[in-house]
Design brief:
By secondary structure, this protein is mainly α. It has 21 helices and 4 strands. Helix 12 runs antiparallel to helix 13, helix 14 packs across helix 15 and helix 19 runs antiparallel to helix 20.
Length: about 425
């Protein structure tokens, strides 16, 4: 079947199937659509509104007419047309022509299809532009992170609030203030000049890694991983490495993401259930990504000044270089975590160190470190703390205590697949031997 625009319907299933397709496409394409619109309209808040309008249109049309062959393109075209309508209605058409045109002669030529073509003329990378924009120093750190996770990571306000253990209205206010500040300060949606890149680099790397992590271990929902987010973050990392080749942490982040992403094919069973690292079939790891990651790590090490991302990549490399779990150099990993805790101290780093120490020196030593974190307020509500303690207790034969910890972890996680995993481990520990 063909409908307006000449796009062929991929299939004609039930409205419920179409709604699911819209949701799936939105998760994959939202960041790119918003980034492209932001470049076009020069306003992050307006870009998000236009993208939401296109989403509503898809929810109305696709159940009736079928899912288009290029659903992401359909969303972008629909949002772009709505933007053009708004420009005309707001009497700003001529101003937008001037922004798009490079000189008077071009502006005089622009109309109809010519205008559409000019608006589609990307120079550079829209998503990277938006990353640097939301990392502008006019925004406070919490505002940058909340806005980036909302617009680029596709998380809901509720999911962001849960991830950072703050009330949902607080997150909503941070996002609204951030968008309003960017508009009020007339911050352009563009890459900063080269001399300003280093000043924003730390924030940009943090945002890219947050996007990657949301794909690698989804905060909430039914999926254990969201590979499209990982791929987008890795692509941004590669672009940054080309843009700033002398920055070791850029290569360190690229190395970390490539090595971690290499495990994605082995992280889930055919039914979508998660498979833990030590249980994975390592023959399914993507060796090309491993090689890319190790090469990027080598570049970071050659430049010196090993920062947090390069150190985490070196830790990930300990797994990547081991053909079996038994071959893992846990002692080196524990030493690297000790160094990372010195360079970038955090309770989460210390919890990961507990795991490495537990493997290198025995579960008793690891449990000592994990037990010291129980009172840490930043880990209240963090499912991995009871999960780590549960694993260490199980290895010590303290099955009842371990089962209780896994039960606590299940109650804290927002990811359905992870909850199933924790509940299954708790049930297995309670079964009579």
């Amino acid at each position: 079947m063909r409908y307006s625009g000449g796009v062929t319907s991929a299939y004609s299933d039930s409205p419920a199937d179409s709604h699911r397709a819209v949701e799936a496409v939105w998760r994959i394409e939202a960041a790119r659509v918003i980034a492209g619109l932001a470049r076009m309209v020069g306003d992050v808040g307006l870009a998000e509104e236009l993208a939401q309008d296109a989403l509503v249109a898809a929810l109305e049309e696709w159940p009736r007419k079928g899912v288009p062959d290029n659903p992401g393109g359909w969303l972008m075209v629909t949002a772009k047309h709505r933007a053009l309508d708004q420009f005309r209605r707001r009497d700003t058409y001529e101003r937008k022509l001037q922004e798009v045109g490079r000189d008077l002669e071009l502006r005089e030529r622009l109309s109809g299809d010519d205008l559409d073509a000019a608006l589609d003329d990307h120079i550079g990378d829209d998503l990277l532009r938006l990353v640097f924009t939301v990392c502008h120093p006019v925004l406070p750190a919490e505002g940058r992170i909340a806005l980036a996770l909302r617009t680029l990571g596709g998380l809901t306000t509720e999911e962001i609030a849960r991830a950072f253990l703050v009330p949902e209205p607080t997150v909503g206010q941070r996002i609204s203030r951030a968008k309003r500040t960017l508009t009020d300060k007339k911050v352009p949606i563009e890459l900063p000049p080269p001399q300003e890149l280093p000043a924003r680099l730390a924030s940009v790397l943090e945002i890219v890694y947050l996007i990657f992590n949301e794909g690698y271990a989804a905060t909430a929902g039914d999926d254990w991983v969201r590979p499209s987010l990982c791929q987008e973050a890795m692509r941004l990392g590669r672009v940054l490495a080309g843009l700033m080749p002398d920055e070791p942490e850029v290569h360190g982040l690229s190395a970390l993401m490539e090595i971690q992403a290499s495990r994605i094919p082995a992280r889930t069973a055919p039914d979508g259930s998660p498979i833990l690292l030590l249980d994975q079939d390592r023959s399914r790891w993507d060796r090309l990504l491993v090689r890319r990651g190790l090469a990027a790590l080598g570049r970071a090490e050659a430049l010196g000044r090993m920062g947090p991302y390069a150190l985490q990549a070196a830790i990930a490399a300990c797994h990547a270089r081991a053909l079996t779990p038994e071959d893992t150099d846990w002692a080196r990993m524990a030493a690297l975590y000790r160094l990372l805790a010195h360079v970038a101290p955090s309770p989460v780093v210390e919890l990961n160190r507990a795991v490495a120490v537990g493997m290198a020196d025995g579960p008793e030593r690891g449990l000592e470190i994990a037990d010291a974190l129980v009172a840490e307020r930043h880990l209240r509500g963090y499912a991995q703390l009871p999960a780590v303690r549960g694993d260490l207790l199980a290895r010590l034969g303290r099955d009842e205590e371990a089962a209780a910890e896994f039960g606590r972890a299940a109650g804290l996680t927002r990811n359905a697949r992870e909850r199933e995993l924790f509940l299954a481990r708790a049930a297995a520990l309670r079964q009579p031997s």
